[in-house]
Amino acid sequence: MAKDLYLPRNRYRAALQRQRDRIADGLRFEAVDNDVTGNKYTHASWGLCSRDHGAWPDAEDHLWPDQFAAHGRVAPKYRNQHQPCPMQNKGGAQGCFYSCRIFHSGEIGPSKRDDALALYDAAILKATGASNG
Question: 0.85 exceeded by the pTM?
């Protein structure tokens, strides 16, 4: 079913809190934009585009939970439009790489851990105010 492709609100909030806690605990900052033809992906360890297993440890959060459990394949479910990554800038082009504070604006980087935490705190507060789902 199509709705199974998207993170429920409670799982989105859990992902935000988990990433916030990981950053607060000293998660190393990484940013990779792989533009190899046939293998395009973006990964930012401090964002929800993270490909780290620690960012997405629960099989229920993956598009292919059996593949995650059996082979560790990280493929998080899609987020709805009202579930932005805290690293996403308002406006601008669509897509993680084009709207990311990490890749384009220079607002977030290794020396700005406190700024990243503040963005997560605001996103968690906003997500907590939304109805459960």
Answer: yes
